[in-house]
Amino acid sequence: VLIQVQAQNAAQANYDESKVPPYTLPDVLKTTKSKKVQTKTEWETIRRPEIIKLFEENVYGQMPKSYDRLTYSIKNKNADAMAGKATLKEVTIEVVKNNNPVKINLVLFVPNRQKGPVPVFLLINNRGKDNTDPTRAKKSDFWPAEMVIDSGYAIAAFHVSDLAPDDTATYVNGVLQLYPEQLTANDGMKAIGAWAWGACRVLDYFEKDTTIDAKKVAVVGHSRGGKASLWAAAEDQRFAMCMTNCSGNTGAALARRQFGERINRINTVFPHWFATNYKKFNHKENVLPVDQHMLIAAIAPRPLYATNASKDLWADPTGTYLALKNAEKVYGLYGLTSNLNANPPAINQPIINSILGYHNREGEHNLTAYDWSNFIKFANVHLKK
Ligand code: GTR
């Protein structure tokens, strides 16, 4: 029955551009006291913290930063993985707070031919664990580790279930045990916040791993994982780059367009993803004090790459592109010009030479080798130099 109701809602969503209601986005450069932000100092000291707080209070919930200790152990190491091209490490990262532990199982391949610490792509894996098979008996374009290694980057992944099972009944069994106050607060974090928190803890680990350049970590996520990769990069400025793939509603797409998935629907089908306060905005996109262009702006001046798929209108490709477009002026405060036209590019026309990168891939809602090949091109321009 639930599946039927979901399908019905999706079918009733608006997919007609001419029916997008008129809307006004909150001005990313105007403070809550109506002061116009003109410099990057004003942005960094006044407006950016304000925006992060607004997202914490109204959308994703708080992001607790303190814990008692983080330790790690190497469960398995193979210096001769991928026919000698890479070193595999399976790392168990344990984070403890108030005697409650969380264990993150990290799979990491580091290219052998590279000298010195290497940049890394970290995937927040929201799909099957066999997508990140450390033995490489199974290979998947969702995490094409060989392609990334051949391009001179390290590649890593952890599964969201280590932090918070993606389930309304059991999502509390993970990070939320470390921060029980989050469970009762209306602005408490839930599953997506917990996954983003996990990405930040993996970054804590990278800072201890001398084979990894922790100043060049790209956080990658697809769909619900792409919502988490955005939130992680916005919250934690140590992430050097962010990839958000088909992240849609409460990811990179503008809510006010009310195109495809809407806030009411996401809060109803996935009540365990966002802060309780977010439910106040069901059917009320226009009173939300933020929109998703502000989340992208909070990642400035760091490079961000967003994607869509042509058949995935549910995730609103145009609304995603327009979110990037409306974040541009914050990058402008840093003297960074992106080359975004007013309208989205044609299908399969990636925008790489721009601090805000984008493509709309032909096809379905997915993370594919095509998407990764463009992540690598984008990183070659913006991360490696
Ligand atoms: C859908 C959800 C989207 C997106 C997607 C996914 O059901 O409505 O927001 O998260 O799942 O993660 O693949």
Question: What's the SSE blueprint?
Answer:
Blueprint: H1 2-12, H2 40-60, E1 69-80, H3 81-84, E2 86-97, E3 100-111, E4 118-125, H4 145-150, E5 154-159, H5 175-178, H6 181-184, H7 191-206, E6 212-222, H8 224-235, E7 241-245, H9 263-269, H10 292-297, E8 304-309, H11 317-332, E9 356-361, H12 369-382
Residues 126, 223-224, 248-249, 261, 266 line the site of beta-D-galactopyranuronic acid (GTR).
Describe the structure.
The chain is globular and about 55 Å long. The chain is 31% helix and 20% strand. By secondary structure, it is α/β, with parallel strands linked by helices. The protein starts with a helix and ends with a helix. A 9-stranded mixed beta sheet has the order 1-2-3-5-4-6-7-8-9, sandwiched between helices. The model has no long low-confidence stretch (mean pLDDT 96). Bound molecules: beta-D-galactopyranuronic acid. Residues 126, 223-224, 248-249, 261, 266 line the site of beta-D-galactopyranuronic acid (GTR).
For the structure shown, list the relevant keywords.
12 helices, alpha/beta, 9 strands, 385 residues, nine-stranded mixed β-sheet, binds beta-D-galactopyranuronic acid
- Average predicted local confidence, pLDDT: 96
Strand content: 15-25%
Q: How many DSSP H or I helices?
A: 12
Distance between the termini: 52 Å
Determine the oligomeric state from the structure: single chain
**Largest sheet composition:** 9 strands, mixed
Structural class: alpha/beta
- Tell me roughly what share of residues is in helical segments: 25-40%
Write down the secondary-structure element order: HHEHEEEHEHHHEHEHHEHEH
Number of strands: 9
Rg estimate, integer Å: 20 Å
Show unreliable segments.
none
Q: Spatial order of the strands in the main sheet?
A: 1-2-3-5-4-6-7-8-9
Note the overall shape: globular
Ligand identities? beta-D-galactopyranuronic acid
